[in-house]
UniProtKB/TrEMBL annotation, chain A:
The keyword Transmembrane applies. Residues 1-24, 268-343 are annotated as: Disordered. Its EC number is 3.4.23.-. It comes from Gouania willdenowi (Blunt-snouted clingfish). Residues 304-319 have a biased composition (Polar residues). The gene is psen1. This is Presenilin.
UniProtKB/TrEMBL annotation, chain B:
The lineage of its organism: Eukaryota, Metazoa, Chordata, Craniata, Vertebrata. The chain crosses the membrane at residues 20-39, 60-81. Belongs to the PEN-2 family. This is Gamma-secretase subunit PEN-2. It comes from Gouania willdenowi (Blunt-snouted clingfish). It is a multi-pass membrane protein.
Amino acid sequence: CLHTSAVSTPPEQNGLPPAAPPPQVVEAEEDEDEEITLKYGAKHVIMLFVPVTLCMVVVVATIKSVSFYTQNDGQRLIYTPFPEDTDTVGERAVNSILNATIMITVIIFMTLVLVLLYKYRCYKVIQGWLFVSSLLLLFFFSYIYLKEVFKTYNVAMDYFTLAIIIWNFGVVGMMCIHWKGPLRLQQAYLIMISALMALVFIKYLPEWTAWLILAVISVYDLLAVLCPKGPLRILVETAQERNEPIFPALIYSSTMVWLVNMADTDRPKRNSREAAPPQETQQAPVATPEPSIPSQDDGGFSPNWVNQQQHQLGPLQSTDETRREIQQMPSARPPVEDDDDEERGVKLGLGDFIFYSMLVGKASATASGDWNTTLACFVAILIGLCLTLLLLAIFKKALPALPISIFFGLVFYFATDNIVQPFMDKLALHQFYI
Amino acid sequence: MNLERLPNEEKLGLCRKYYLIGFAFLPFLWLVNVVWFFQEAFIKPAYSEQLQIKSYVKRSALGLLVWVTVLTTWITIFQRFRAEWGEVGDYISFTIPLGTP
Protein backbone atom coordinates (compact mmCIF):
# COMPACT_ATOMS: atom_id res chain seq x y z
CA CYS A 1 0.00 0.00 0.00
CA LEU A 2 0.93 3.52 -0.41
CA HIS A 3 1.25 6.27 2.01
CA THR A 4 2.60 9.70 1.87
CA SER A 5 4.15 11.16 4.87
CA ALA A 6 2.88 14.62 4.44
CA VAL A 7 3.40 17.36 2.17
CA SER A 8 5.69 20.23 1.78
CA THR A 9 5.93 22.82 4.43
CA PRO A 10 5.20 26.36 3.59
CA PRO A 11 7.95 28.86 4.10
CA GLU A 12 8.36 29.85 7.67
CA GLN A 13 7.24 33.17 8.79
CA ASN A 14 9.85 34.96 10.72
CA GLY A 15 8.10 38.18 11.29
CA LEU A 16 5.23 38.77 13.59
CA PRO A 17 2.35 36.81 12.31
CA PRO A 18 -1.00 38.49 12.75
CA ALA A 19 -2.69 37.39 15.90
CA ALA A 20 -5.79 36.37 14.11
CA PRO A 21 -5.29 36.04 10.43
CA PRO A 22 -8.28 37.15 8.43
CA PRO A 23 -10.27 34.27 6.98
CA GLN A 24 -9.47 35.08 3.38
CA VAL A 25 -5.80 34.81 4.09
CA VAL A 26 -6.32 31.45 5.65
CA GLU A 27 -8.27 30.31 2.68
CA ALA A 28 -5.76 31.55 0.24
CA GLU A 29 -3.19 29.74 2.26
CA GLU A 30 -5.27 26.65 2.15
CA ASP A 31 -5.46 26.77 -1.59
CA GLU A 32 -1.80 27.38 -1.79
CA ASP A 33 -1.20 24.54 0.56
CA GLU A 34 -3.20 22.26 -1.60
CA GLU A 35 -1.38 23.34 -4.64
CA ILE A 36 1.91 22.79 -2.94
CA THR A 37 0.60 19.47 -1.81
CA LEU A 38 -0.20 18.37 -5.26
CA LYS A 39 2.97 19.70 -6.79
CA TYR A 40 5.11 18.23 -4.13
CA GLY A 41 3.16 15.06 -4.34
CA ALA A 42 3.71 14.92 -8.06
CA LYS A 43 7.42 15.16 -7.54
CA HIS A 44 7.38 12.23 -5.23
CA VAL A 45 5.27 10.28 -7.62
CA ILE A 46 7.94 10.64 -10.19
CA MET A 47 10.43 9.62 -7.58
CA LEU A 48 8.60 6.38 -7.20
CA PHE A 49 8.60 5.69 -10.89
CA VAL A 50 12.33 5.25 -10.94
CA PRO A 51 12.63 2.44 -8.42
CA VAL A 52 9.59 0.63 -9.74
CA THR A 53 10.99 0.82 -13.24
CA LEU A 54 14.41 -0.30 -12.08
CA CYS A 55 12.98 -3.28 -10.31
CA MET A 56 11.02 -4.28 -13.37
CA VAL A 57 14.03 -3.79 -15.61
CA VAL A 58 16.13 -6.04 -13.43
CA VAL A 59 13.50 -8.73 -13.41
CA VAL A 60 12.86 -8.60 -17.14
CA ALA A 61 16.57 -8.54 -17.92
CA THR A 62 17.13 -11.59 -15.77
CA ILE A 63 14.19 -13.44 -17.23
CA LYS A 64 15.37 -12.78 -20.71
CA SER A 65 18.94 -13.78 -20.17
CA VAL A 66 19.02 -16.38 -17.45
CA SER A 67 16.95 -19.30 -18.57
CA PHE A 68 16.85 -20.81 -15.13
CA TYR A 69 13.97 -18.65 -14.08
CA THR A 70 11.74 -19.77 -16.88
CA GLN A 71 12.57 -23.45 -16.79
CA ASN A 72 10.03 -25.70 -15.39
CA ASP A 73 11.94 -28.11 -13.21
CA GLY A 74 8.83 -29.64 -11.90
CA GLN A 75 9.47 -28.17 -8.50
CA ARG A 76 6.80 -26.29 -6.80
CA LEU A 77 6.37 -24.37 -3.65
CA ILE A 78 4.70 -26.18 -0.84
CA TYR A 79 2.03 -23.56 -1.04
CA THR A 80 0.99 -24.55 -4.48
CA PRO A 81 0.91 -28.30 -4.41
CA PHE A 82 -1.35 -28.91 -7.35
CA PRO A 83 0.42 -29.42 -10.62
CA GLU A 84 -0.67 -27.62 -13.70
CA ASP A 85 0.43 -30.03 -16.32
CA THR A 86 -2.75 -32.00 -16.23
CA ASP A 87 -4.62 -33.66 -19.00
CA THR A 88 -7.64 -31.54 -19.32
CA VAL A 89 -8.20 -27.85 -19.22
CA GLY A 90 -10.83 -28.29 -16.60
CA GLU A 91 -8.46 -30.06 -14.27
CA ARG A 92 -5.88 -27.39 -14.80
CA ALA A 93 -8.37 -24.68 -13.98
CA VAL A 94 -9.44 -26.45 -10.83
CA ASN A 95 -5.87 -27.03 -9.76
CA SER A 96 -4.90 -23.45 -10.27
CA ILE A 97 -7.92 -22.22 -8.34
CA LEU A 98 -7.02 -24.54 -5.50
CA ASN A 99 -3.42 -23.35 -5.55
CA ALA A 100 -4.47 -19.73 -5.47
CA THR A 101 -6.85 -20.43 -2.63
CA ILE A 102 -4.17 -22.09 -0.58
CA MET A 103 -1.78 -19.25 -1.21
CA ILE A 104 -4.24 -16.56 -0.33
CA THR A 105 -5.24 -18.40 2.81
CA VAL A 106 -1.62 -18.57 3.85
CA ILE A 107 -1.28 -14.87 3.23
CA ILE A 108 -4.39 -13.97 5.16
CA PHE A 109 -3.25 -16.16 8.00
CA MET A 110 0.16 -14.54 8.06
CA THR A 111 -1.31 -11.09 8.04
CA LEU A 112 -3.57 -11.96 10.92
CA VAL A 113 -0.69 -13.42 12.86
CA LEU A 114 1.20 -10.24 12.24
CA VAL A 115 -1.62 -8.05 13.41
CA LEU A 116 -2.07 -10.15 16.51
CA LEU A 117 1.59 -10.04 17.29
CA TYR A 118 1.51 -6.33 16.90
CA LYS A 119 -1.56 -5.92 19.04
CA TYR A 120 -0.05 -7.91 21.84
CA ARG A 121 3.18 -6.05 21.58
CA CYS A 122 5.37 -8.96 20.63
CA TYR A 123 7.69 -6.63 18.82
CA LYS A 124 10.70 -8.83 19.26
CA VAL A 125 9.04 -11.66 17.44
CA ILE A 126 8.16 -9.45 14.53
CA GLN A 127 11.60 -8.00 14.31
CA GLY A 128 13.17 -11.42 14.53
CA TRP A 129 10.91 -12.66 11.77
CA LEU A 130 11.80 -9.77 9.52
CA PHE A 131 15.44 -10.19 10.29
CA VAL A 132 15.44 -13.87 9.40
CA SER A 133 13.53 -13.34 6.22
CA SER A 134 15.82 -10.60 5.02
CA LEU A 135 18.76 -12.80 5.90
CA LEU A 136 17.32 -15.54 3.76
CA LEU A 137 16.75 -13.24 0.86
CA LEU A 138 20.06 -11.52 0.99
CA PHE A 139 22.17 -14.60 1.31
CA PHE A 140 20.42 -17.61 0.00
CA PHE A 141 18.49 -16.24 -2.91
CA SER A 142 21.29 -14.05 -4.08
CA TYR A 143 23.57 -17.09 -3.96
CA ILE A 144 21.23 -18.94 -6.26
CA TYR A 145 20.86 -15.94 -8.48
CA LEU A 146 24.61 -15.53 -8.81
CA LYS A 147 25.05 -19.20 -9.53
CA GLU A 148 22.56 -19.07 -12.35
CA VAL A 149 24.01 -15.90 -13.79
CA PHE A 150 27.47 -17.42 -13.81
CA LYS A 151 26.20 -20.54 -15.44
CA THR A 152 24.43 -18.55 -18.09
CA TYR A 153 27.50 -16.56 -18.96
CA ASN A 154 29.75 -19.57 -18.69
CA VAL A 155 32.09 -17.99 -16.20
CA ALA A 156 34.25 -19.94 -13.83
CA MET A 157 34.05 -18.93 -10.23
CA ASP A 158 35.79 -20.29 -7.22
CA TYR A 159 34.30 -20.73 -3.82
CA PHE A 160 36.59 -18.26 -2.16
CA THR A 161 35.68 -15.29 -4.33
CA LEU A 162 32.06 -16.31 -4.28
CA ALA A 163 32.07 -16.46 -0.50
CA ILE A 164 33.58 -13.01 -0.30
CA ILE A 165 31.02 -11.60 -2.71
CA ILE A 166 28.00 -13.12 -1.05
CA TRP A 167 29.25 -12.30 2.41
CA ASN A 168 29.83 -8.66 1.51
CA PHE A 169 26.58 -8.29 -0.34
CA GLY A 170 24.62 -9.86 2.46
CA VAL A 171 26.19 -8.13 5.42
CA VAL A 172 26.17 -4.68 3.88
CA GLY A 173 22.58 -5.32 2.83
CA MET A 174 21.54 -6.26 6.33
CA MET A 175 23.26 -3.20 7.71
CA CYS A 176 21.68 -0.85 5.24
CA ILE A 177 18.24 -2.25 5.64
CA HIS A 178 18.05 -2.88 9.35
CA TRP A 179 20.48 -0.43 10.75
CA LYS A 180 21.99 2.65 9.23
CA GLY A 181 23.28 3.15 5.79
CA PRO A 182 23.31 5.58 2.94
CA LEU A 183 19.85 6.19 1.57
CA ARG A 184 20.66 5.37 -2.02
CA LEU A 185 22.28 2.12 -1.08
CA GLN A 186 19.33 1.16 1.04
CA GLN A 187 16.97 1.91 -1.80
CA ALA A 188 19.15 -0.11 -4.14
CA TYR A 189 19.10 -3.08 -1.80
CA LEU A 190 15.36 -2.91 -1.40
CA ILE A 191 14.96 -2.91 -5.14
CA MET A 192 17.30 -5.86 -5.47
CA ILE A 193 15.56 -7.98 -2.92
CA SER A 194 12.18 -7.18 -4.41
CA ALA A 195 13.51 -8.29 -7.76
CA LEU A 196 14.85 -11.49 -6.23
CA MET A 197 11.53 -12.27 -4.65
CA ALA A 198 9.68 -11.57 -7.85
CA LEU A 199 12.02 -13.93 -9.67
CA VAL A 200 11.36 -16.66 -7.15
CA PHE A 201 7.67 -16.25 -7.67
CA ILE A 202 7.98 -16.29 -11.40
CA LYS A 203 9.97 -19.45 -11.28
CA TYR A 204 7.95 -21.39 -8.82
CA LEU A 205 4.40 -20.44 -9.49
CA PRO A 206 2.78 -22.25 -12.37
CA GLU A 207 1.11 -20.19 -15.06
CA TRP A 208 -2.52 -19.96 -14.32
CA THR A 209 -1.89 -19.98 -10.61
CA ALA A 210 0.32 -16.95 -10.93
CA TRP A 211 -2.25 -14.88 -12.76
CA LEU A 212 -4.98 -15.94 -10.42
CA ILE A 213 -2.88 -15.10 -7.42
CA LEU A 214 -2.18 -11.66 -8.78
CA ALA A 215 -5.85 -10.99 -9.23
CA VAL A 216 -6.81 -12.35 -5.84
CA ILE A 217 -4.03 -10.50 -4.06
CA SER A 218 -5.20 -7.20 -5.46
CA VAL A 219 -8.69 -7.82 -4.23
CA TYR A 220 -7.34 -8.84 -0.87
CA ASP A 221 -5.18 -5.77 -0.68
CA LEU A 222 -8.16 -3.60 -1.40
CA LEU A 223 -10.20 -5.25 1.30
CA ALA A 224 -7.46 -5.43 3.89
CA VAL A 225 -6.57 -1.80 3.60
CA LEU A 226 -9.93 -0.17 3.17
CA CYS A 227 -12.43 -2.25 5.08
CA PRO A 228 -12.92 -1.26 8.69
CA LYS A 229 -12.24 -4.78 9.82
CA GLY A 230 -9.34 -5.31 7.50
CA PRO A 231 -6.19 -6.49 9.24
CA LEU A 232 -4.07 -3.75 7.84
CA ARG A 233 -6.48 -1.09 8.81
CA ILE A 234 -6.48 -2.49 12.32
CA LEU A 235 -2.72 -2.43 12.28
CA VAL A 236 -2.60 1.21 11.36
CA GLU A 237 -5.22 2.21 13.81
CA THR A 238 -3.51 0.37 16.62
CA ALA A 239 -0.26 2.07 15.78
CA GLN A 240 -1.98 5.40 15.78
CA GLU A 241 -3.61 4.79 19.09
CA ARG A 242 -0.35 3.92 20.62
CA ASN A 243 1.18 6.84 18.93
CA GLU A 244 4.03 4.83 17.62
CA PRO A 245 5.46 4.37 14.28
CA ILE A 246 4.48 1.19 12.62
CA PHE A 247 7.35 -1.12 13.31
CA PRO A 248 9.98 -0.71 10.71
CA ALA A 249 8.87 -2.79 7.88
CA LEU A 250 9.44 -3.43 4.34
CA ILE A 251 8.79 -0.14 2.87
CA TYR A 252 10.55 1.80 0.26
CA SER A 253 10.74 5.44 1.03
CA SER A 254 11.48 8.00 -1.58
CA THR A 255 13.30 10.22 0.84
CA MET A 256 14.74 10.23 4.23
CA VAL A 257 12.32 10.41 6.99
CA TRP A 258 13.00 11.50 10.47
CA LEU A 259 12.35 10.00 13.81
CA VAL A 260 10.02 12.20 15.61
CA ASN A 261 7.27 12.19 17.99
CA MET A 262 4.12 12.40 16.12
CA ALA A 263 1.05 14.16 17.22
CA ASP A 264 2.79 16.03 19.89
CA THR A 265 0.30 18.72 20.45
CA ASP A 266 2.10 20.57 23.16
CA ARG A 267 5.06 21.12 20.99
CA PRO A 268 3.61 22.08 17.71
CA LYS A 269 6.74 23.69 16.47
CA ARG A 270 8.48 20.39 16.21
CA ASN A 271 5.59 18.85 14.52
CA SER A 272 5.48 21.21 11.70
CA ARG A 273 8.23 19.44 9.95
CA GLU A 274 8.36 15.99 11.13
CA ALA A 275 5.36 13.89 11.39
CA ALA A 276 6.60 11.25 9.24
CA PRO A 277 6.92 7.92 10.82
CA PRO A 278 10.44 6.86 11.43
CA GLN A 279 10.65 4.72 8.47
CA GLU A 280 14.17 5.49 7.80
CA THR A 281 15.14 1.94 8.08
CA GLN A 282 13.08 -0.30 6.11
CA GLN A 283 13.53 -3.84 6.51
CA ALA A 284 13.77 -6.52 4.21
CA PRO A 285 10.77 -7.72 2.59
CA VAL A 286 8.94 -10.23 4.32
CA ALA A 287 9.53 -13.70 3.94
CA THR A 288 9.46 -15.74 0.97
CA PRO A 289 7.82 -18.95 0.41
CA GLU A 290 10.37 -21.68 0.49
CA PRO A 291 11.04 -23.26 -2.74
CA SER A 292 10.77 -26.93 -2.32
CA ILE A 293 14.29 -27.66 -3.33
CA PRO A 294 16.23 -26.65 -0.39
CA SER A 295 14.88 -28.52 2.48
CA GLN A 296 15.27 -26.90 5.76
CA ASP A 297 13.41 -24.24 7.46
CA ASP A 298 10.08 -23.42 6.41
CA GLY A 299 9.98 -19.85 5.57
CA GLY A 300 6.32 -19.94 5.44
CA PHE A 301 6.38 -16.28 5.18
CA SER A 302 3.92 -14.59 3.21
CA PRO A 303 5.60 -12.26 0.90
CA ASN A 304 2.68 -10.17 0.74
CA TRP A 305 1.86 -8.92 4.02
CA VAL A 306 4.31 -6.36 3.06
CA ASN A 307 2.26 -4.75 0.52
CA GLN A 308 -0.02 -4.17 3.29
CA GLN A 309 2.23 -2.07 5.31
CA GLN A 310 0.51 0.93 6.43
CA HIS A 311 1.71 4.03 7.76
CA GLN A 312 0.29 6.54 9.83
CA LEU A 313 -2.54 8.58 8.77
CA GLY A 314 -1.88 10.81 11.67
CA PRO A 315 0.98 12.84 10.38
CA LEU A 316 -0.89 14.32 7.52
CA GLN A 317 -3.58 15.64 9.66
CA SER A 318 -1.23 17.12 12.12
CA THR A 319 0.68 18.92 9.47
CA ASP A 320 -2.15 21.00 8.24
CA GLU A 321 -3.21 21.93 11.66
CA THR A 322 0.16 22.57 13.07
CA ARG A 323 1.12 24.68 10.19
CA ARG A 324 -1.69 27.00 10.86
CA GLU A 325 -0.95 26.90 14.50
CA ILE A 326 2.54 27.98 13.92
CA GLN A 327 1.50 30.84 11.82
CA GLN A 328 -0.58 32.01 14.67
CA MET A 329 2.02 31.72 17.30
CA PRO A 330 3.94 34.72 18.50
CA SER A 331 7.17 35.21 16.76
CA ALA A 332 9.17 34.85 19.90
CA ARG A 333 9.37 31.16 19.41
CA PRO A 334 12.72 29.87 18.35
CA PRO A 335 12.96 29.15 14.69
CA VAL A 336 12.20 25.63 13.84
CA GLU A 337 15.40 23.75 13.48
CA ASP A 338 15.91 21.31 10.74
CA ASP A 339 15.88 22.13 7.20
CA ASP A 340 12.83 21.59 5.22
CA ASP A 341 13.74 19.98 2.06
CA GLU A 342 12.37 16.67 1.40
CA GLU A 343 11.78 15.04 4.61
CA ARG A 344 8.62 13.58 3.58
CA GLY A 345 8.32 11.26 0.83
CA VAL A 346 5.96 8.76 -0.48
CA LYS A 347 6.32 5.27 0.75
CA LEU A 348 5.51 2.19 -1.17
CA GLY A 349 5.45 -1.25 0.32
CA LEU A 350 7.95 -3.73 -1.02
CA GLY A 351 5.21 -6.20 -1.71
CA ASP A 352 3.92 -3.80 -4.28
CA PHE A 353 7.29 -3.77 -5.98
CA ILE A 354 7.35 -7.51 -5.93
CA PHE A 355 3.98 -7.97 -7.51
CA TYR A 356 4.46 -5.34 -10.15
CA SER A 357 7.73 -6.90 -11.17
CA MET A 358 6.19 -10.33 -11.07
CA LEU A 359 3.50 -9.27 -13.46
CA VAL A 360 5.88 -7.72 -15.91
CA GLY A 361 8.33 -10.57 -15.56
CA LYS A 362 5.71 -13.16 -16.22
CA ALA A 363 4.52 -11.16 -19.18
CA SER A 364 7.98 -11.12 -20.66
CA ALA A 365 8.50 -14.79 -19.94
CA THR A 366 5.38 -16.21 -21.37
CA ALA A 367 3.84 -13.81 -23.76
CA SER A 368 3.66 -14.60 -27.40
CA GLY A 369 4.02 -10.96 -28.23
CA ASP A 370 7.28 -10.66 -26.45
CA TRP A 371 8.32 -7.05 -26.07
CA ASN A 372 4.98 -5.61 -27.07
CA THR A 373 3.23 -7.29 -24.24
CA THR A 374 5.98 -6.55 -21.77
CA LEU A 375 5.95 -2.88 -22.61
CA ALA A 376 2.19 -2.73 -22.51
CA CYS A 377 2.16 -4.22 -19.03
CA PHE A 378 4.88 -1.90 -17.92
CA VAL A 379 2.98 1.14 -19.09
CA ALA A 380 -0.20 -0.17 -17.55
CA ILE A 381 1.43 -0.57 -14.18
CA LEU A 382 2.91 2.90 -14.25
CA ILE A 383 -0.43 4.39 -15.16
CA GLY A 384 -2.01 2.47 -12.33
CA LEU A 385 0.65 3.76 -9.96
CA CYS A 386 0.02 7.32 -11.10
CA LEU A 387 -3.67 6.98 -10.49
CA THR A 388 -3.09 5.45 -7.11
CA LEU A 389 -0.80 8.27 -6.12
CA LEU A 390 -3.32 10.77 -7.35
CA LEU A 391 -5.91 9.19 -5.16
CA LEU A 392 -3.44 9.27 -2.35
CA ALA A 393 -3.02 13.00 -2.75
CA ILE A 394 -6.77 13.42 -2.73
CA PHE A 395 -7.67 11.14 0.11
CA LYS A 396 -4.54 11.50 2.15
CA LYS A 397 -4.85 8.09 3.70
CA ALA A 398 -2.94 4.94 3.29
CA LEU A 399 -4.14 3.25 0.18
CA PRO A 400 -3.64 -0.14 -1.39
CA ALA A 401 -1.25 0.23 -4.27
CA LEU A 402 -1.92 -3.08 -5.93
CA PRO A 403 -5.49 -3.12 -7.19
CA ILE A 404 -5.46 -0.44 -9.84
CA SER A 405 -2.06 -1.27 -11.28
CA ILE A 406 -2.53 -5.00 -11.25
CA PHE A 407 -5.95 -4.68 -12.76
CA PHE A 408 -4.67 -2.56 -15.60
CA GLY A 409 -1.66 -4.79 -15.96
CA LEU A 410 -3.75 -7.91 -16.25
CA VAL A 411 -6.16 -6.34 -18.68
CA PHE A 412 -3.35 -5.07 -20.85
CA TYR A 413 -1.54 -8.37 -20.72
CA PHE A 414 -4.43 -10.49 -21.83
CA ALA A 415 -5.64 -7.95 -24.32
CA THR A 416 -2.26 -7.42 -25.90
CA ASP A 417 -1.39 -11.04 -25.97
CA ASN A 418 -4.61 -12.18 -27.51
CA ILE A 419 -5.72 -9.29 -29.61
CA VAL A 420 -3.01 -6.83 -30.36
CA GLN A 421 -0.22 -9.24 -31.01
CA PRO A 422 -1.92 -11.38 -33.63
CA PHE A 423 -3.02 -8.16 -35.26
CA MET A 424 0.57 -6.90 -35.38
CA ASP A 425 1.77 -10.23 -36.67
CA LYS A 426 -0.72 -10.18 -39.47
CA LEU A 427 0.24 -6.68 -40.37
CA ALA A 428 3.88 -7.56 -40.45
CA LEU A 429 3.10 -10.61 -42.48
CA HIS A 430 1.40 -8.59 -45.11
CA GLN A 431 3.98 -5.82 -44.82
CA PHE A 432 1.31 -3.34 -44.07
CA TYR A 433 2.56 -0.47 -41.99
CA ILE A 434 0.18 1.69 -40.14
CA MET B 1 19.90 7.90 6.58
CA ASN B 2 20.81 11.40 5.84
CA LEU B 3 24.14 12.49 7.15
CA GLU B 4 23.11 16.09 7.12
CA ARG B 5 20.82 15.64 10.00
CA LEU B 6 23.16 13.88 12.32
CA PRO B 7 25.19 15.66 14.94
CA ASN B 8 28.91 15.45 14.42
CA GLU B 9 29.65 13.01 17.18
CA GLU B 10 27.20 10.58 15.71
CA LYS B 11 28.75 10.94 12.31
CA LEU B 12 32.09 10.12 13.81
CA GLY B 13 30.64 7.18 15.65
CA LEU B 14 29.06 5.85 12.49
CA CYS B 15 32.23 6.25 10.47
CA ARG B 16 34.18 4.51 13.16
CA LYS B 17 31.76 1.62 13.38
CA TYR B 18 31.81 1.14 9.65
CA TYR B 19 35.57 1.12 9.73
CA LEU B 20 35.78 -1.42 12.51
CA ILE B 21 33.15 -3.76 11.16
CA GLY B 22 34.91 -3.71 7.81
CA PHE B 23 37.67 -5.81 9.33
CA ALA B 24 35.38 -8.80 9.14
CA PHE B 25 36.32 -9.48 5.53
CA LEU B 26 34.10 -6.69 4.31
CA PRO B 27 35.88 -4.55 1.75
CA PHE B 28 32.53 -3.50 0.37
CA LEU B 29 31.73 -1.93 3.68
CA TRP B 30 34.97 0.02 3.53
CA LEU B 31 34.04 1.17 0.08
CA VAL B 32 30.69 2.37 1.34
CA ASN B 33 32.43 4.12 4.18
CA VAL B 34 34.81 5.93 1.86
CA VAL B 35 32.14 7.02 -0.58
CA TRP B 36 29.63 8.03 2.01
CA PHE B 37 31.94 9.97 4.27
CA PHE B 38 34.12 11.38 1.56
CA GLN B 39 32.27 14.62 1.38
CA GLU B 40 32.16 14.90 5.13
CA ALA B 41 35.83 14.29 5.51
CA PHE B 42 37.36 16.25 2.71
CA ILE B 43 34.97 18.70 1.21
CA LYS B 44 33.12 20.17 4.11
CA PRO B 45 34.60 23.04 6.06
CA ALA B 46 36.45 21.86 9.12
CA TYR B 47 34.74 20.95 12.32
CA SER B 48 36.01 19.31 15.41
CA GLU B 49 35.46 15.68 14.56
CA GLN B 50 36.46 16.03 10.99
CA LEU B 51 40.06 15.08 11.59
CA GLN B 52 39.15 11.75 13.03
CA ILE B 53 36.62 11.08 10.31
CA LYS B 54 39.31 11.86 7.79
CA SER B 55 41.64 9.35 9.35
CA TYR B 56 38.97 6.65 9.34
CA VAL B 57 38.14 7.33 5.73
CA LYS B 58 41.80 7.17 4.80
CA ARG B 59 42.31 3.93 6.64
CA SER B 60 39.21 2.42 5.07
CA ALA B 61 40.49 3.42 1.66
CA LEU B 62 43.80 1.79 2.43
CA GLY B 63 42.17 -1.41 3.56
CA LEU B 64 40.00 -1.37 0.48
CA LEU B 65 43.04 -1.02 -1.74
CA VAL B 66 44.72 -3.95 -0.08
CA TRP B 67 41.67 -6.13 -0.55
CA VAL B 68 41.26 -5.10 -4.15
CA THR B 69 44.86 -6.04 -4.92
CA VAL B 70 44.57 -9.37 -3.19
CA LEU B 71 41.31 -10.24 -4.88
CA THR B 72 42.43 -9.15 -8.31
CA THR B 73 45.60 -11.19 -8.04
CA TRP B 74 43.74 -14.25 -6.88
CA ILE B 75 41.07 -13.96 -9.55
CA THR B 76 43.61 -13.50 -12.29
CA ILE B 77 45.57 -16.51 -11.14
CA PHE B 78 42.47 -18.57 -10.82
CA GLN B 79 41.03 -17.72 -14.20
CA ARG B 80 44.31 -18.21 -15.94
CA PHE B 81 45.42 -21.42 -14.37
CA ARG B 82 42.19 -23.10 -13.44
CA ALA B 83 42.15 -25.46 -16.33
CA GLU B 84 45.72 -26.52 -15.70
CA TRP B 85 45.17 -27.41 -12.11
CA GLY B 86 43.07 -30.38 -13.00
CA GLU B 87 41.25 -31.87 -10.11
CA VAL B 88 42.13 -29.24 -7.58
CA GLY B 89 40.88 -26.60 -9.96
CA ASP B 90 37.55 -28.31 -10.28
CA TYR B 91 37.29 -28.81 -6.60
CA ILE B 92 37.52 -25.17 -5.77
CA SER B 93 35.30 -24.13 -8.63
CA PHE B 94 31.80 -23.13 -7.95
CA THR B 95 30.75 -23.07 -11.56
CA ILE B 96 32.69 -24.72 -14.26
CA PRO B 97 32.27 -23.35 -17.74
CA LEU B 98 31.24 -25.72 -20.42
CA GLY B 99 33.13 -26.21 -23.61
CA THR B 100 36.83 -26.25 -24.19
CA PRO B 101 38.88 -24.76 -21.40
